[in-house]
Amino acid sequence: MSKLLEHNPDPSCGADVQHDVAVAAAVELAMEFYGCDAVTAAAKRAIEARDLDRESHFRFWVNVFKTLKSQPNLIAEICHSG
Fold first, then answer.
1. Which of 27, 42, 70, 72 has the maximum number of C-beta atoms within 10 A of its C-beta?
2. What digits encode the pLDDT tens for the residues 31-48?
3. In the chain, at which residue ranges do the beta strands (DSSP E only) sit?
4. Residue 79 in contact with residue 39, Cβ under 8 Å?
5. Distance CA 21, CA 11 (A)
6. Are 33 and 26 within 8 A, CB to CB?
7. Among 29, 27, 33, which residue's Cα sits nearest to residue 60?
8. Cα dihedral 34, 42, 39, 12 in deg (nearest 10)
9. Where are the domains of the chain?
10. Is pLDDT at 12 greater than 50 in this prediction?
11. How far is residue 32's CA from residue 26's CA, in Å, rounded to a whole number?
């Protein structure tokens, strides 16, 4: 393998980082806008995207949903602060 190919970054890596940043931003906005219902709202968006055959949108909202579900303490804090 040539040195040029050996050190060339994987172009899909940048897309993953952008996706992660977008998911993190959507999680923050969902918590801010929907509060205690953020998890439900993300699930609803995923279902809507699936019904419309928007696979990339579906995967995005599933990732938002999973991220929210993985942070129950944060959701509980938002629910109890209001």
1. 42
2. 999 999 999 999 999 999
3. none
4. no
5. 16
6. no
7. 27
8. -120
9. 35-81
10. no
11. 10
In this structure, are residues 61 and 45 in contact, taking their beta carbons and an 8 Å threshold? yes
| Residues 72, 59: Cα–Cα separation, whole Å | 21
Q: Give the length of the chain.
A: 82
* Eight-state DSSP code of residue 47: H
Average pLDDT over residues 18-39: 92
Give dist(CA 74, CA 31) in Å, integer: 9
pLDDT value of position 76: 86
Residue 76 one-letter amino acid: A
Would you call 15 helix, strand, or coil by DSSP? helix
Q: Residue type for 63, please?
A: N
Helix/strand/coil for 20: helix
